[in-house]
């Protein structure tokens, strides 16, 4: 409603906001309302987590030195979907990603499996994430350990 009212004012049509609101309601028109952003990180502040090996220095001097991972949500015509991705910092490219309608551990685990398959890293890659519960899960931690990848955890919204 506010945008319609502002556009009318820009076009030189002087009308009260309440009038625009009443007319829009009578015509069955509803403006888009922005809600709160969706929370994708659910962490346990007291849980033991790996050290932060990156300290917000998101740079790599050699291949397979640092991977940074996170996930976000995207609004589509059918609703929200979650996108998990892993960034190969040396090249600045996304090397693993998955899309899902739920933010379960399998989403981030599938993105990790794709990355392991495509990159075939050696020992000692640093895998940096935020404190999200998906990255702190036993299944995810075990997969990193099995692949001899070093887990690094920053703060929420850090990766």
UniProtKB/TrEMBL annotation:
Highest taxon above the source species: Bacteria
Transmembrane segments: 80-99
Molecular function terms, GO-annotated: nucleic acid binding
A single BP term in Gene Ontology: DNA integration
Pfam families, alphabetized: HTH_21, rve
Keywords, comma-separated and alphabetical: Membrane, Transmembrane, Transmembrane helix
SUPFAM superfamilies xrefs: Ribonuclease H-like
Database matches in PROSITE patterns: INTEGRASE
InterPro entries associated with the record: HTH-like_dom (IPR025948), Integrase_cat-core (IPR001584), RNaseH-like_sf (IPR012337), RNaseH_sf (IPR036397), Transpos_IS3 (IPR048020), Transposase_IS3/IS150/IS904 (IPR050900)
Ranges of residues in domain Integrase catalytic: 59-159
NCBIfam families in UniProt: transpos_IS3
Name of the featured protein: Integrase core domain protein
Taxonomic lineage of the native organism: Bacteria, Pseudomonadati, Pseudomonadota, Gammaproteobacteria, Enterobacterales
């Amino acid at each position: 409603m506010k945008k319609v009212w502002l556009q009318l004012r820009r076009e030189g049509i002087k009308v009260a906001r309440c009038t625009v609101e009443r007319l829009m309601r009578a015509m069955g028109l509803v403006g888009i309302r922005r809600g709160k952003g969706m929370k994708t990180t659910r962490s346990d502040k007291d849980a033991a987590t790996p050290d932060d090996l990156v300290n917000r220095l998101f740079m790599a001097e050699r291949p397979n030195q640092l991977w940074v991972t996170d996930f976000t949500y995207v609004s589509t015509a059918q609703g929200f979907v979650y996108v998990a991705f892993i960034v190969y910092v040396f090249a600045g490219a996304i090397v693993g990603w998955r899309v899902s309608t739920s933010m379960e551990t399998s989403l981030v685990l599938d993105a990790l499996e794709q990355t392991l398959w495509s990159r075939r890293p050696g020992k000692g890659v640093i895998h940096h994430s935020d404190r999200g519960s998906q990255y702190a899960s036993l299944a995810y931690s075990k997969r990193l350990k099995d692949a001899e990848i070093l887990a690094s955890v920053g703060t929420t919204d850090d990766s």
